[in-house]
């Protein structure tokens, strides 16, 4: 197939590593957008960080919804490539991009229109609320760039060319780093300046993707960006991507409730601690997500091609890789929480509160990496429902647990313990679930065998 790399032959370790590194780096770049904003805005004070932190939950929710087409692209296009069906791969690519545009316009419009009542959920001081509303409305108009870029990234990952999204996203990050201080301090725009810098950077990433696909790559032999939706392809994409998007979106709703509770218990410092701590925790999350996405793309091709022995070996290899890094992050957060938090918010009261959050959250980092790694296995074989069930149930357990711990007199720290405990539970349950069904689900389905056989004749 033109413009793709086969993952069904060659060294598993090298392929996983070469695929995971650019994906992981791309994830870090996407995380760095928020951290860069947070670091510069942190110089304005903890109240300014609380303002963009309240919007951060909504941008996270937006990113979660965009996973529908990112994961939809990675699995549907990846499995089509593995089955050597280039026509289906092109159709899936076009459908994912079209669906991404439709969803992003609808969702961005809702956030823009209802920005005021949404932000007031947090019950922050009025001047913080007003800044957050303005920030959200600017960010919401740039959501089509985020959604379409996510779909493009998924298509490249499925084709085994994860370096391209890395280079493109890296360009956007460099631009964001340059524009942030210019807009925030140079033009005196404050928190709005961070929003404008992010908007311009995301638009640039989108335009580079368009240029790359149209004038440099003949990916999948070329395909139209937009198409009339057909039930066959749309249904498959929704089946693959909707559980993942629903999982992460519901997770964001849980965090919105926890942010409200943190604000009630600790004021703007409580909200700032939770939102900024979550961004810092993304160091672990994005690392494991990079390996998980690589594992998903690798398994999608090998599972469709009937190379089950490569699927098993890739799973073991990825567990070792993520386990080592998860242990490192656990030690970093537990013993150096204050120092890490102070990099982003140098205000003493803020980094002391943040250090407590990171210490408590640090106990769960290894299990978080376990959960996300196992998600990659399930996604790769096309079974996206089990991770969704486990994550949704356990994430919603955080609400009653947080309420219970707060009423027990633990205050805002009770919320941190609820988050840490449920993360540990998710990792253990998902690993156990896969071990139980492994023998059955890794027997190549007869329908897939027929697909492979017909493509070879």
UniProtKB/TrEMBL annotation:
CDD domains: MATE_like_1. The chain crosses the membrane at residues 48-71, 92-115, 135-159, 166-187, 193-211, 237-258, 319-345, 415-436. InterPro entries: MATE_fam (IPR002528), MdtK-like (IPR048279), Membrane_Transporter-Flippase (IPR052031). GO terms for molecular function: antiporter activity; xenobiotic transmembrane transporter activity. It is a multi-pass membrane protein. One of its GO terms (cellular component) is plasma membrane. The keyword Oxidoreductase does not apply. It is found in: Cell membrane. Keywords: Cell membrane, Membrane, Transmembrane, Transmembrane helix, Transport. PANTHER family: MULTIDRUG RESISTANCE PROTEIN YPNP-RELATED. This is Putative efflux protein, MATE family.
């Amino acid at each position: 197939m033109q413009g793709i790399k086969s993952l069904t032959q060659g060294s598993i370790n090298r392929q996983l590593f070469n695929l995971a590194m650019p994906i992981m780096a791309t994830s870090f770049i996407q995380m760095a957008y928020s951290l860069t904003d947070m670091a510069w805005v942190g110089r304005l004070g903890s109240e300014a960080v609380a303002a963009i932190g309240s919007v951060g939950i909504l941008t996270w929710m937006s990113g979660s919804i965009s996973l529908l087409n990112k994961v939809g692209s990675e699995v549907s296009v990846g499995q089509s490539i593995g089955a050597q069906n280039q026509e289906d791969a092109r159709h899936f690519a076009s459908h994912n991009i079209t669906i991404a545009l439709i969803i992003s316009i609808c969702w961005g419009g809702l956030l823009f229109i209802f920005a005021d009542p949404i932000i007031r959920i947090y019950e922050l001081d009025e001047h913080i609320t007003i800044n957050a509303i303005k920030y959200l409305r600017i960010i919401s108009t740039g959501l089509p760039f985020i959604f379409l870029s996510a779909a493009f990234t998924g298509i490249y990952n499925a084709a085994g060319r994860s370096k391209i999204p890395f280079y493109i996203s890296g360009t956007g990050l460099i631009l964001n780093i340059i524009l942030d201080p210019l807009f925030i301090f140079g033009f005196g725009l404050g928190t709005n300046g961070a929003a404008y810098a992010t908007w311009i950077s995301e638009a640039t990433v989108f335009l580079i993707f368009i240029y790359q696909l149209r004038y440099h790559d003949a990916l999948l032999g070329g395909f139209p960006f937009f198409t009339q939706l057909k039930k066959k392809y749309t249904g498959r994409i929704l089946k693959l991507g909707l559980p993942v998007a629903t999982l992460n979106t519901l997770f964001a709703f849980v965090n919105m409730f926890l942010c409200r509770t943190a604000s009630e218990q600790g004021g703007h410092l409580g909200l700032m601690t939770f939102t900024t701590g979550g961004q810092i925790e993304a160091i672990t999350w994005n690392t494991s997500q990079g390996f998980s996405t690589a594992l998903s793309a690798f398994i999608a091709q090998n599972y469709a091609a009937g190379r089950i022995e490569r699927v098993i070996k890739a799973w073991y290899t990825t567990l070792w890789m993520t386990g080592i890094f998860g242990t490192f992050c656990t030690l970093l957060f537990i013993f150096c929480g204050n120092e890490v938090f102070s990099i982003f918010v140098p205000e003493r009261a803020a980094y002391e509160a943040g250090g407590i959050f990171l210490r408590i959250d640090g106990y769960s980092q290894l299990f978080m990496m376990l959960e996300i790694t196992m998600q990659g296995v399930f996604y790769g074989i096309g079974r996206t429902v089990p991770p969704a069930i486990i994550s949704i149930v356990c994430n919603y357990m955080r609400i009653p647990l947080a309420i219970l711990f707060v009423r027990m007199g633990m205050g805002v720290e009770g919320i941190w313990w609820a988050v840490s405990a449920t993360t540990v539970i998710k990792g253990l349950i998902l690993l156990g679930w896969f071990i139980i069904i492994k023998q059955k689900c890794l027997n190549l389905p007869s329908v897939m065998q027929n697909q492979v056989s017909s493509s070879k004749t």
